[in-house]
Specification:
Strand content: 15-25%
Distance between the termini: 13 Å
Number of domains: 2
Radius of gyration: 25 Å
Structural class: alpha+beta
Helix content: 40-55%
CATH class of the largest domain: Alpha Beta
Largest sheet: 7 strands, mixed
Number of strands: 13
CATH superfamily of the largest domain: Endonuclease/exonuclease/phosphatase
Oligomer: single chain
Order of helices and strands: EHEHEEEHEEHEHEHEEEEHHH
């Protein structure tokens, strides 16, 4: 690599709020989004909540002169909603669907049906390998009583592990998407601490946009004002995160968000604000590499967040086991009721009543059975993430020999060292 290597990347990210039949002015907003992307000519446009195949095909056709490479990540029943448009050829594509994604019986929330996922595209730019990820995690809905917290923490850990295991040959890693988490939330901290990704909003020296970088703001006419009542300036739940490895250095020269209005026409492109960043990648001598050292002070936050995530997943498993046990009791009572109805029907004394109660009793048993199976699957999904975290903590204890208070950041240092050797 030439010592004077330098590359500028312009990145766009937006949760498009493209729910067919429900999202207001969807067709008009998609049209204006296409016009805006063509005019600005970003290197990469990463979008969430493009739920309609028709919308994706429309954007693909409209953007093809400027962004010849495009892909729609499909999963679940209604799709992940993730898609990408690139000015540069896409060398590789893959995606990973999260193991846990809410509850199928919470139909009014709908996350389970979407098959939330993370999409990966690999670009080769002037000899540099860029791994770009786009994702959308489970929504929060109720911050005071968040029944999806364990699922979102598990998704954050799964996302962090996916990035770690798929980016070993990458020179630059970029993650964009709607994480549905505030910057201080457990899942967000877990993701950033484990992967080493840096927040563009915190890193840039030139920021223009909503106060505190918020991506859902009261000024946006599509936002539910009641939900933002506790947050007068809005919330920041959409992110651009990045890092460079293997002798490269990346910086965010500028970051801009929309502020409740379309940059040109005055009406919003979505209920979320768009993120627009200009990143610079350059060659970095080994002694200046930001990943070359791991001071003890940098390890403590990682240890703390790993232990907190491990605890939260344990609580989630206990809750899921309780629901599975409850379903078992309902199944037992339902079977007992069916047996009683069979006896009554055979005796002939209350045959008509038994026949009337037969169908709802069978329905109760079937519903409880499906409920049981789902929550057993939830227990296993949470257990997997919980066991992985427990393994990391155990390895840290062995590596540091610190008994009950280990520092697992040493493992992160070992991982970076292994990555360097592989390259």
């Amino acid at each position: 690599m030439k010592p004077n290597f330098s590359l500028r990347l312009r990145i766009f990210n937006l949760n498009c709020w493209g729910i067919p039949y429900l999202s207001k002015h969807r067709a008009d907003r998609m049209r204006r989004l296409g016009d805006f992307l063509n005019q600005e000519s970003f290197d990469l446009a990463l979008l969430e909540e493009v739920w309609s195949e028709q919308d994706f095909q429309y954007l693909r056709q409209k953007l093809s002169p400027t962004y010849p490479a495009a892909h729609h990540f499909r999963s679940g029943i209604i799709g992940s909603g993730l898609c990408v448009f690139s000015k540069h050829p896409i060398q590789e594509l893959t995606q990973h669907v999260y193991t846990l994604n809410g509850y199928p019986y919470m139909i009014h929330h709908g996350d389970w049906f979407s098959g939330k996922a993370v999409g990966l595209l690999v670009l080769h730019l002037s000899g540099m390998v860029l791994n770009a990820y786009v994702t959308h995690l489970h929504a929060e809905y109720n911050r005071r009583k968040d029944i999806y917290l364990a699922h979102r923490v598990a998704q954050a850990w799964e996302l962090a592990q996916f990035i770690h295991h798929t980016s070993k040959k990458a020179d630059v890693v970029l993650l964009c998407g709607d994480l549905n988490m505030h910057p201080e939330d457990l899942g967000c901290c877990l993701l950033k601490e484990w992967t080493g990704l840096r927040d563009a909003y915190l890193e840039t020296r030139d920021f223009k946009g909503s106060e505190e970088g918020n991506t859902m703001v009261p000024k946006n006419c599509y936002v539910n004002q009641q939900e933002l009542k506790p947050f007068p300036f809005g919330v920041r739940i959409d992110y651009m995160l990045y890092k460079a490895v293997s002798g490269f250095y990346i910086s965010c020269k500028s970051l801009e968000t929309t502020t409740g209005n379309d940059p040109y026409s005055g009406t919003p492109l979505s209920d979320h604000e768009a993120l627009m960043a200009t990143l610079f990648v350059r060659h970095s001598p080994p002694q200046q590499s930001p990943n070359s050292t791991h001071r003890p002070a940098e390890r403590s936050p990682l240890m703390s967040v790993l232990k907190e995530a491990w605890t939260e997943l344990g609580l989630g498993m206990a809750q899921a086991r309780w629901w599975a046990a409850f379903a078992t009791y309902v199944i037992g009572l339902g079977l007992l009721l069916l047996a009683l109805l069979c006896v009554l029907a055979a005796g002939g004394g209350a045959r008509e009543a038994a026949i009337l109660l037969w169908t709802p009793s069978v329905g109760l048993v079937l519903w409880a059975g499906a409920f049981y199976l789902f929550h057993v699957q939830e227990v296993n999904g949470l257990y997997r993430a919980h066991a992985e975290l427990q393994h990391v903590l155990g390895r840290a204890r062995e590596a540091q020999d610190l008994g009950p208070e280990p520092q697992p950041a040493l493992l992160l240092g070992q991982q970076e060292g292994d990555r360097t050797k592989e390259q």
